[in-house]
Amino acid sequence: MATYIVRRLIGAVLLLFVVSIVTFTIFFLVPRLGGATADDLASRYVGKTAGAEQIHQMAVKLGFTDPLWVQYGRFVGGLFVGADYSTGPTTVHCPAPCFGYSFITQNPVLPDLLDRLPVTLSLAAGGAVIWLLFGVATGVLSALRKGSVFDRAAMSVALAGVSLPIFFTGLLSLSIFSYGLGITPPGGSYVPFTENPLQWAYSLILPWITLAFLYAAGYARLTRAGMLETMNEDYIRTARAKGLPERTVVVKHGLRAALTPIVTIFGLDLGLLLGGAVLTESTFSLPGLGKYAVDAIVNNDLPKVLGVTLVAAAFIVFANLVVDLLYAVIDPRVRVA
Amino acid sequence: MTFLDVRDLRVHFPTDDGLVRSVDGLSYRLERGKTLGIVGESGSGKSVSSLAVLGLHKRARISGEIWLDGEELVGADEEHVRGLRGKKMAMIFQDPLSAMHPYYTVGQQIVEAYRIHHRVSKAVARKHAIEMLDRVGIPQPNSRVDDYPHQFSGGMRQRAMIAMALSCDPELLIADEPTTALDVTVQAQILDLIRDLQREFGSAVVIITHDLGVVAELADDILVMYGGRCVENGPSTEIFDNPQHPYTWGLLGSMPRLDRERSERLMPIKGTPPSLINVPSGCAFHPRCAYAELVGGACGYEVPQLREVGGGHQVACHLSQEQRHRVWHTEIEPNL
């Protein structure tokens, strides 16, 4: 078991390393391959009126003219020891871990990210609880009553849930419940949990449900398929032969065995969402990481985009690690491997 | 009063292709402390009929009567039957690897079986589980109790399965192909174990198998099933020494034996098991029976009824007693 954990941890660290290389490549190398010179890159960091000479000076100052490995070293170094950027007359310090420094808004990216994270976290966590409960419950009931009216109705709704994009269901629900009936708050009215937990939940209820609808649909289908399979296993018959009540047979024996793929997908979905629920946050104007990334992209603010990308990638790696470790908890056969 | 009395049991499954008549009029009796071997090939209805006794069929149409210790189980309250399952009647399944839950330890699974029917603490149940493992011959039960099924060998798993089934002292034990998934050397150990435990617990045992060799030593009575019906039944010695049904002859002829020359060939039963949706008219075995022509036409349209041939021995065959006697002694027995 210990070796299993250590192996997974080492794997995760290696993966983060690869992530940093890939991210670096995308942001610094790909533009070069696309024909952009160091000066072209630097031109994003100076005012529009800057002349060619000034741009070149900036390119030298920002290190775009250095060899690639030096640039990569500086990029990774910033994460551990911080970085100094001299943008003109003054030098700014970006303390470790430095996820980048925005020359447009003149501030390090990390505090911004930490500021936005709770919003994304609230959205993802609340949505996840709802979709997990509804998705799995629907899936189990559907499997137990395969072919029934309930099953068909649930699976049709689930199909709609998977197919409809969130900006459609989100806008539709906003227009009905917020602007039509007025029972939920309009978009952009996020209240932090620390300020008022009730208001927090109220401000997020619509985004949660919208997000959960999309995901619950997938989980319902996944759970249904898994349950249909496990409920036909021999050990289910054994459980019944012991005289267990049907509810115990279904939950403790059937669902337990069908849980592995659900946990896998759940971990990955959650990791993905923590990097920013771009569509949901944009639809409901929630100031989370996803909205932050969209705004940064619109403003061509590369360091911010880079920062969000790194954080998002790290969350996915972390989620993978957690899933791997959970595997061992769920399935004892994994522990020996 | 007979302990287990099955009367005219029918188990039918409605499917898209038609009605599957898995068991079609099966009757037998079994007393406490006795062992009944139900023998037949795949699809003969032997497992289905036993699952019906435990009430484990969800989508089947069941008719007939199943009396267990004076209590009718067909049509009985499901919750009540559930209370009997595991306690009064228990079952051992064929492949213990797939029949035990891979995510729970062997101990947890025995504890669970015990605690449904006994209001005891987990610690007490655990002690009982260790005791049971010890009783079925698992070495170091104190540590093995926390192992998972995949950490056990095949034979040990079947022992654990038996420990689980016996944890509540069932009065009726049904073993469905208990040795099929095991090595030959382990098979004998498991059969011995079942016999020893039966003596100890005094339960009634039903052993389901396709292998006459398995029941040869173990069973008091043998019931041969074909196409969802009983074609022959009687005391074990009668079935082996004086078999009356052509299908039983076929089973005996296809059984490998160590006391024969290796050059002699086994005599397989020709053809394939019957479809249970379109069961052959008349005697279900007649399309495969080498002796149907001795009878004339009756085999093809008239279902033979079970008839007593003496000594508690019954057979369902249109051949006359003399014909059966002659064929057995001149054609079958000398070649076995």
UniProtKB/TrEMBL annotation, chain A:
Question: Which Gene Ontology terms describe the biological processes this protein takes part in?
Answer: transmembrane transport
Which UniProt keywords are listed?
A: Cell membrane, Membrane, Transmembrane, Transmembrane helix, Transport
User: What residue intervals traverse the membrane?
Assistant: 9-30, 121-144, 156-180, 200-222, 257-279, 305-330
Q: Superkingdom of the source?
A: Bacteria
Q: Where in the cell is it found?
A: Cell membrane
Task: Write down any Gene Ontology CC term.
Answer: plasma membrane
Q: Does the keyword Cytoplasm apply?
A: no
The record gives the membrane topology as:
Multi-pass membrane protein
Main subcellular location of this protein, as a coarse class: membrane
Q: Where is the ABC transmembrane type-1 domain?
A: 117-327
Q: Which family does it belong to?
A: Belongs to the binding-protein-dependent transport system permease family.
Q: What is this protein called?
A: ABC transmembrane type-1 domain-containing protein
UniProtKB/TrEMBL annotation, chain B:
Q: Where in the cell is it found?
A: Cell membrane
What range(s) does the ABC transporter domain occupy?
6-252
Q: How does it sit in the membrane?
A: Peripheral membrane protein
Q: Which InterPro entries match?
A: AAA+_ATPase, ABC_Ni/Peptide_Import, ABC_transporter-like_ATP-bd, ABC_transporter-like_CS, Oligopep_ABC_C, P-loop_NTPase
Instruction: Alphabetically list the UniProt keywords.
Output: ATP-binding, Cell membrane, Membrane, Nucleotide-binding, Transport
Task: Indicate whether Membrane appears among the record's keywords.
Answer: yes
Pfam families found in the cross-reference section: ABC_tran (PF00005), oligo_HPY (PF08352)
Q: Name one GO molecular function term.
A: ATP binding
The superkingdom listed in its UniProt entry is Bacteria
Protein family (similarity comment): Belongs to the ABC transporter superfamily.
This protein is called what? Peptide/nickel transport system ATP-binding protein
Give the classification, highest ranks: Bacteria, Bacillati, Actinomycetota, Actinomycetes, Pseudonocardiales
